[in-house]
Amino acid sequence: MRIRCPYCGERDLSEYIYHGDMAARPDPAAPDAQRRFYEAVYLRDNPAGPHEELWYHANGCRGWLRVRRDTRTHEILDTAFAGS
Amino acid sequence: MAELSPTSALSSVPRGAPGGGVTIMERRGLALMTMQARRGQEHALRSRIAQSCQADLPERPAFVTGRDIAFVGLGPQTWFVMSEADTPAFHASFRSLVGGTASISDQSGGYAVFRVGGRATREALAKGFPIDLDGRAFNSGDAATTIVSHIGATIWRREDAPDGSACFEISLFRSLARSFWHWFSESAAEYGLTWQDLPADL
């Protein structure tokens, strides 16, 4: 599997670390924070198809990437820096 | 006071293999720094570097030289800085040049830089680098931060040698230089490996 880094170009999977779902962390100050965290941790979507996720280019530019990956085929549909 | 001089990152290791397919030398005594532009200061940093060092900071993984200094793009707004003038005066003047536009971290004792060449360089490097170093994909002036035999490294290509063979430079953490050497000497042995600068302390 190869992932195209916006800075480094296309690189092997071994340069990256997978950090999981791109979904935002729940607000700990929300009145129903406990339920939201329960849902975020245990009731995550597990789509068969495109999935937005975070990857860290640890052995490259050390940037965080937002990657859209098809979980059925591992096709990388889109990549961008997470902060962009 | 005795003059302090840099020692090799690879003291007392066996060197070389008969033949001359690959050459390697350690570029010792370099001033090495990592530099990261501060938020919103990239433009100011660029103009200061352009004015004082006669170099355009690369916006991609690339190697550029300026007046007595060289820069390698490591990541967005992040560069590796090299100079042969590893003196307190140079460090002080470069720090004052960039001022508040970038953060500087002195890595002179943290990284080692090797220069490799010879007709079989690419064949030897291909055994460890997972990127395409062919001339069509990796030109003079191109750089890449990647791994070599599981060791984090940055590689850039310099101008070809007079005989037309490619010349690369590789930087990596100095503490991993022996592991790199273990891989490199084994990988280059079949082509013959020559050290171009036996350190004086051997």
Detail the poorly predicted runs of chain A: none
- Put simply, the count of helices of chain B is 4
Name the CATH superfamily assignment of the largest domain in chain B.
Answer: Probable tRNA modification gtpase trme, domain 1
Which percent range describes the beta-strand content of chain A?
Answer: 35-45%
CATH topology of chain A: Folate-binding fold
Strand order of the largest sheet of chain A: 3-4-5-6
3D shape of chain B: globular
Number of domains of chain B: 2
Helix content of chain B: 10-25%
Strand content of chain B: 25-35%
Q: Please, what is the average pLDDT of chain B?
A: 92
Question: Structural class per helix/strand content of chain A?
Answer: mainly beta
Radius of gyration of chain B: 17 Å
How many structural domains are formed by the residues of chain A? 1
CATH architecture of chain A: 2-Layer Sandwich
CATH class of the largest domain in chain B: Alpha Beta
- Globular, elongated, flat, extended or rod-shaped: what is the shape of chain A? globular
Label this structure with key terms.
heterodimer, A: 84 residues, mainly beta, Folate-binding fold, 4-stranded antiparallel beta sheet, two-stranded antiparallel ribbon, 1 helix, 12% helix, 39% strand, globular, B: 202 residues, alpha+beta, Gyrase A, domain 2, Alpha-Beta Plaits, 2 domains, 6-stranded mixed beta sheet, 5-stranded antiparallel beta sheet, 11 strands
